[in-house]
Amino acid sequence: MAATAEAGPPASQRPLSPDELARIDAWWRAANYLSVGQIYLLDNPLLTEPLRLEHVKPRLLGHWGTTPGLNFVYVHMNRVIVRDELERVVADGLTEAELERGKGHLEGSLVLGMEDTSGRMTRLGKSELTFGEILSVDEVIRRVDAVTDADVRAVAKEVLGTGPRALALIGPFDDDGFSQYLS
Predict the structure, then answer these.
(1) Domain extents in the chain
(2) Which ranges of the chain would DSSP assign to H, the alpha helix?
(3) Contact 98, 152 (CB under 8 A)
(4) CA-CA distance, 150 to 96, in Å (whole number)?
(5) Lowest mean per-residue pLDDT among 39-48, 69-78, 157-166
(6) Is there a contact between 31 and 38 (Cβ–Cβ < 8 Å)?
(7) Tell me, what DSSP letter sits at residue 100?
(8) What is the structure's pLDDT at 170?
């Protein structure tokens, strides 16, 4: 299933839609719920059984009075940062430092992921799925090193541009479990 985004002014110049406001509110309420659990509960955070005294911490860690306000700031700042960064990458690409940091992260993850048999087998499977063949570590690193800002910009425009967007979810969802994200 794919959701489409309307072309128009940049997201930073549009007011929030009712759907965006509803998602922000849902995120904020979920963050507050998790915060209450972290501050007050030792056990049973999902309230899968009736709350009992032994579920509650004998000594609280945190202050509920500041948490909703901080969560409110976090939800809006995260939204603005992600929105602005996506628009910047589509328009301007990455800086040389960002590109090098990204390459270093990929290469480091590749090498660290080879510390055990499971990691090595996962790398082989990913190589087969991604490239249709098993590539040596040196070849993968060579391909990562060959990525340019122009490559990143082209992919960003194709994937993050104003055209249709797709959403992929992995998990045990029923048909209605993710339809809210496709509007």
Answers:
(1) 1-92+161-183, 94-147
(2) 18-40, 67-92, 96-112, 117-131, 137-145, 149-160
(3) no
(4) 11
(5) 157-166
(6) no
(7) H
(8) 65
Pick the closest to residue 32 from 78, 83, 80, 73 (CA basis): 73
Which amino acid, 88? Answer: R
Other beta carbons less than 10 A from residue 55's beta carbon: 16
| Residues in Cβ contact with 103 at an 8 Å cutoff, skipping those fewer than 6 apart | 144, 145, 147
* Mean pLDDT score across all residues of the chain: 83
Q: What is the pLDDT of residue 53?
A: 93
Return the exposure string of 27-53: e unless at least 16 CB atoms fall within 10 Å of the residue's CB, then b: bbeebbeebebeebeeeeeeeeeeeee
172: which 2 tokens?
Answer: 């045990």
pTM of the model: 0.54
Furthest-apart CA atoms within the chain: distance in Å: 59
Rg (CA), the chain: 22
Position 53: which residue type? L
CA–CA separation, 68 vs 45, rounded Å? 18
